[in-house]
Design a protein that fits this description.
rod-shaped
Length: 116
C-alpha cells in the first residue's frame, strides 16, 4: 500500500508537470496566434494603405503626364509660329532691301538723266 501511494504521488507529480507544460505550451501557442493575427491585420492594413497611395500616385503621374503632353504640344505650336514669323520677317527685310536698292538706282538714273 505504501508503494502504491508513492507510485500515485509520483504519477500525480508527473501529471502536474505535464499539465503545467501543456498549459504553458497552450498559452504560448495562444500568444503566438494572437501576435500572428495582429501582424496579419497590420500587414493587410499597411498593404491596403500602400495600394491606395499607389493609385493616388498613379493618378498624379497621369495628370502630370497629360499636362506635360499639353505643354509640349503648345510649345511645338509656338515654335512653328515663331518660325513662321521669322520667315515673314526675313522676307520683309529682303523686300525692304530690294526697295531701297530700287530707290537708289532710280535716284542714280534720275541724276544721270539730269546730267549730274
Amino acid at each position: 500500500l505504501v508503494t502504491c501511494a508513492k507510485d500515485n504521488d509520483s504519477l500525480r507529480g508527473r501529471l502536474l508537470t505535464m499539465a503545467s507544460e501543456a498549459s504553458t505550451k497552450e498559452q504560448t501557442l495562444t500568444t503566438a496566434l494572437s501576435q500572428l493575427k495582429s501582424l496579419s491585420e497590420s500587414y493587410y492594413s499597411v498593404n491596403r494603405g500602400l495600394k491606395h497611395e499607389q493609385i493616388t500616385r498613379h493618378h498624379e503621374v497621369s495628370s502630370l503626364q497629360w499636362s506635360l503632353d499639353d505643354m509640349s504640344c503648345q510649345m511645338l505650336m509656338l515654335s512653328k509660329k515663331v518660325n513662321e514669323l521669322q520667315t515673314e520677317n526675313d522676307d520683309l527685310r529682303d523686300e525692304l532691301r530690294r526697295q531701297r536698292l530700287e530707290k537708289q538706282r532710280s535716284m542714280a538714273f534720275q541724276r544721270a538723266a539730269r546730267g549730274g
